[in-house]
Design a protein that fits this description.
Order of helices and strands: EEEEEEE
Distance between the termini: 24 Å
Oligomer: single chain
Number of strands: 7
Helix content: under 10%
Largest sheet: 4 strands, antiparallel
Number of helices: 0
Number of domains: 1
Shape: elongated
Strand order of the largest sheet: 1-6-3-4
Radius of gyration: 13 Å
Structural class: mainly beta
Length: about 90
């Protein structure tokens, strides 16, 4: 996913949740950030069935030029939101 995030003034978040509500196994999710300085390992999370989790990109990267690779052991849905200033 392409992400044009800025330092703390532009906050990007990813929301991940299992693809199917009938999912019975946890999904092991890894985020990797691709910056102009190279790859930056992101957070890892195990999502239980029916669980969702939000990741704040600014917790890991300080770059305006960043995209994200999401890999998972099970199908997940990824939603990206972007805020200009603090989220309300």
């Amino acid at each position: 996913m392409r992400e044009g995030r800025g330092r703390r003034s532009v906050i990007g978040r990813f929301l991940l949740f299992p693809y199917s509500l009938r999912c019975t196994e946890a999904a092991d999710v890894d985020l990797t950030f691709m910056t102009d300085q190279g790859q930056v390992p992101g957070p890892r999370q195990s999502l239980a069935p029916g669980e969702r989790h939000s990741f704040n990109i600014a917790d890991t990267v300080e770059s305006y030029n960043v995209s994200t690779i999401v890999t998972s052991s099970k199908p997940v849905v990824v939603s990206r939101s972007q805020y200009f200033g603090p989220p309300v």
